[in-house]
Amino acid sequence: MKRKWFGFLVVILSLSVMLMGCNNEESAEETSLLDTVKDRDLLIAGVNGELPGFSYLDSEGNYSGFDADFARAIAAAVLGDASKVEYRPLSSKERFTAVQTGEVDVLTRNTTWTLTRDTSVGLNFAPVTFYDGQGIIVPKDSGITSIEDLEGARISVESGTTTELNLADQMRKHGINYEAVVYDSQDAAVAAYESGSVDAYTTDKSGLVARKAIMKDPSAHVILDDTLSKEPLAPAVIGGDDKWFDVVKWVVNATIQAEELGITSENVDEFKDSSDPVVQRLLGTDGDLGSQLGLSDDFGYQVIKQVGNYGEIFERNLGPDTKFGLERGLNGLYTEGGLMYSPPLR
Amino acid sequence: MKKDIADVPTPFWRNKKVIPFLAQGIFAVIIAISLLFLFSNALDGLRQMGISLGFDFLKSSASFGISESLIDYTPESSYGTAFLVGVLNTLRVSFFGIIIASLIGLVVGISRLSNNWLVNKTASIYVEIFRNTPLLVQISIWYFAVFLPLPRIEESTRFLFSYFSNRGSAIPWFQATSGTLVWVLLFAVGVIASVIVWKLRLKKQIETGENKRPGVWAIGVVILSLVIAFLATFQAPFNITLPTVEGRSFMGGLRLSPEFLAILLGLVIYTSTYIGEIVRGGIQSVQKGQVEAAKALGLKPSTTMRLVIFPQAIRVIIPPVTSQYLNLIKNSSLAIAVGYQEVVSVGETINNQTGKAIESVTIMILVYLTFSLLTSFFMNQFNKRSQIVER
C-alpha cells in the first residue's frame, strides 16, 4: 500500500518537473502584445466610461473623450485605423487586474503614475498625458471654504485610487478627523454626494470639473482651491513587454512632438512634402522609426491624420470651447510654460 | 504443450485488485498535474510582471481611511489591522443579520400557515416579492432609493426618540455604568442557578407526581440574583442615552450609518423570505396524526406546538436554515456596492493599493471559509441534539 503511494508521488513529481520545464521554455519565446493586437486587428482599451471629457458614452453610443482619443491614437499607429478599438469600461478597483490578466491591451483610464504601481502592481507607464491634482468639491451653502473646515465631515471617495490615499495623508497632516465613505463606482460616490449623505466628494480636479458640469445644479457646488496632491495621469501597459510598452510610449510622444512642430490633423498632408528632417522622420517620409517599433513607418502620420496632435486632443475634449473649459496650464507645451515635452523622435 | 487455462496468470489490466488502484491513481495524477499547472502558470505570470508573493505587506501602514470600525483604526494602522476591521464589519452585519432574519423568518413562516386571510396573504406577498428579485438590486434600492433620499441631518425625521437622516440614523442605546459588570456577572450566575433549580424541581415533580412549579422557582432565582445585584451596586444596570443632533453629527445613542442599514436590511429581508419558507415546510412536514394524537391526549394548542410539532419540525428546518445562514454571510460581500466596508471591500482596496492580488484573495477566502465552517459546525452540533435518539 505505502509503496504504491510512493510510486504515485514519484510519477506526479516527475511529470510536474517536466511541466515546469516546458513552461519556462514557453515564456522565453513569449509573444508581445503588439503581435497579439495586430493578429486580432483590434485594440482592447480599458477606460473609465463614467468620466465626461475623458471617456464617456456619447449620445450616439460611442466612447469619446481625452482617454478614448489616446486609445484611438494607438489603434491608428498599430492598425492604421483609429476606429479599431474596443473599449472596456473598468472601475478603479478592476483596472489593474484587467491589465495584469491581459483582458485589456492598454489602460487609458485617468490613472495616476506611482512607484508602487510601477513595481508591486507590475505596470509600465507611458509618458504623462495629463498633469492633474486632487481637489475637493462641496456644496456652496455648506460654508466650507478650505480643507480645515472639513473637521468631522463624511467624504466620499472611490475605492483603490490614489485619491483615497492622498485624502488620508492630507487629513493626517492637518490633524483633521473625517470619515471616508468608499464606493466602488464613481457614479455611486457622486450620487451619495449629491443627495447630501456625505459632505464632500474628492477626486482629481479634472474629474471634479467634469462631474460638476453634469450635476443637477452645477452652480450649487464649488471646488475648493486646495490641491491635495500631484496626479500625473498616464496610459499604462503590462510590465515586462518592452516592445508593446515602446509603442504606447512613442505614440504619446508623437502627438506631443506633432503639436510642437505645428502639425495638425488638417495640415498634416501639406507637411508631407516638408524638407525638415524632423518632420520627415515623424511622418515616416524619411527614416525607419516605425519599423524599429514594429509599426509601419507612417505611424506618426496616421496618428496625426486620424486623431490629431496633443493640443487638438486636449482642446476637443477638455478645452475652453467645451463645457469643462479647462486651461492648458501644466498641460501646455514646454515652450509655453507647460510640462509637455517629447524626447526626440530619431 | 498445452497450458491449463487456470494456470495462465491474469494480466494486471484485468486484475480486479489492481484496476481500482490504477484508476484512482490516474485520477489523482490528473488532478495534481492540473493544480500544478495552474499554480506554476500563476507564478510564471507574476514573475514576468516582476511581482513577488508574500505576506510581509500586512505590517506596513495602510494609509487609507475606513469610515466604520469597531476597533481603533487610523490611516497609520497596518494593512493587517485594516483587514481585521473588515472582518469585524463582516461579522457585525452577519451576526445581527442572522438573528433578525431568523426572527422575521419564523414569524413569516408561521404567518403563511395562518387561517387569517390578511396575515396569510401579506406573508405570501412579502415572500414572493423579496425572494424573487436579485439581492444586489434590493440592496441598491434600499441605499439609493430609501436611505439616501432621507432628509438632511438638520431636518432629520424624529420617531420614538430616534433620528433618521441621510447621514445616518441614531437610536436610543444602552450605556454601561460602573456597576454594569457586577450586574452582568450576577445575572449570569442567576441564570445558571435557575436552570439547575428548574431541573431539580422538574425531577422532583416527575418523582412525586405533585406540581412542584419548576418555572416559578427558576424565575424566582433570577429575580433574586438581580435583587442582590441592585443591593451590591445601588445603580441601574445601564443608562439609556438618547441621541441628539449637534451640528452635522449625532451625539449619544447608537449611530447607524446608511451604508450599514442598507446592507443589513437588504440581507435580512432577502434571507428571511427563504427562512420563512423553510419554517413553513418544516411545520407542514409533521404528520397530521401527530396533532390529532396530541389533541386526543388533551394537550393545549400552544403545548402541542411547543412540545409536539416544533421538536419534530426543527429536525427538518435546521439543515436548510444553516445553508441560508452561510448564504447570508457570503452575500454580505455585496456591501461594496453601497460603500459599507466589510472584508471584501477592504481586501479589494488593499489589493489595489499594493498589487498583492493573490495574497488578498487568499485572506478573503480564508475569512469566509472560517466563518462558514464555524457556523456550519455550531449548527451541526445543534442539529445533532435535535435529532431523534434511536434506541
TrEMBL record, chain A:
<dbReference type="Pfam" id="PF00497">
    <property type="entry name" value="SBP_bac_3"/>
</dbReference>
<keyword id="KW-0732">Signal</keyword>
<feature type="domain" description="Solute-binding protein family 3/N-terminal">
    <location>
        <begin position="42"/>
        <end position="271"/>
    </location>
</feature>
<feature type="signal peptide">
    <location>
        <begin position="1"/>
        <end position="28"/>
    </location>
</feature>
<keyword id="KW-0813">Transport</keyword>
<dbReference type="InterPro" id="IPR001638">
    <property type="entry name" value="Solute-binding_3/MltF_N"/>
</dbReference>
<keyword id="KW-0449">Lipoprotein</keyword>
<dbReference type="GO" id="GO:0006865">
    <property type="term" value="P:amino acid transport"/>
</dbReference>
<dbReference type="InterPro" id="IPR051455">
    <property type="entry name" value="Bact_solute-bind_prot3"/>
</dbReference>
<comment type="similarity">
    <text>Belongs to the bacterial solute-binding protein 3 family.</text>
</comment>
<protein>
    <submittedName>
        <fullName>Amino acid ABC transporter substrate-binding protein</fullName>
    </submittedName>
</protein>
<keyword id="KW-0564">Palmitate</keyword>
UniProtKB/TrEMBL annotation, chain B:
<keyword id="KW-0029">Amino-acid transport</keyword>
<dbReference type="GO" id="GO:0006865">
    <property type="term" value="P:amino acid transport"/>
</dbReference>
<keyword id="KW-0472">Membrane</keyword>
<dbReference type="InterPro" id="IPR000515">
    <property type="entry name" value="MetI-like"/>
</dbReference>
<protein>
    <submittedName>
        <fullName>Polar amino acid ABC transporter permease</fullName>
    </submittedName>
</protein>
<feature type="domain" description="ABC transmembrane type-1">
    <location>
        <begin position="87"/>
        <end position="379"/>
    </location>
</feature>
<keyword id="KW-1133">Transmembrane helix</keyword>
<dbReference type="GO" id="GO:0043190">
    <property type="term" value="C:ATP-binding cassette (ABC) transporter complex"/>
</dbReference>
<keyword id="KW-0813">Transport</keyword>
<feature type="transmembrane region" description="Helical">
    <location>
        <begin position="21"/>
        <end position="39"/>
    </location>
</feature>
<feature type="transmembrane region" description="Helical">
    <location>
        <begin position="361"/>
        <end position="379"/>
    </location>
</feature>
<keyword id="KW-0812">Transmembrane</keyword>
<feature type="transmembrane region" description="Helical">
    <location>
        <begin position="135"/>
        <end position="153"/>
    </location>
</feature>
<dbReference type="Pfam" id="PF00528">
    <property type="entry name" value="BPD_transp_1"/>
</dbReference>
<dbReference type="InterPro" id="IPR010065">
    <property type="entry name" value="AA_ABC_transptr_permease_3TM"/>
</dbReference>
<dbReference type="InterPro" id="IPR035906">
    <property type="entry name" value="MetI-like_sf"/>
</dbReference>
<dbReference type="InterPro" id="IPR043429">
    <property type="entry name" value="ArtM/GltK/GlnP/TcyL/YhdX-like"/>
</dbReference>
<feature type="transmembrane region" description="Helical">
    <location>
        <begin position="93"/>
        <end position="114"/>
    </location>
</feature>
<comment type="similarity">
    <text>Belongs to the binding-protein-dependent transport system permease family. HisMQ subfamily.</text>
</comment>
<feature type="transmembrane region" description="Helical">
    <location>
        <begin position="173"/>
        <end position="196"/>
    </location>
</feature>
<keyword id="KW-1003">Cell membrane</keyword>
<dbReference type="GO" id="GO:0022857">
    <property type="term" value="F:transmembrane transporter activity"/>
</dbReference>
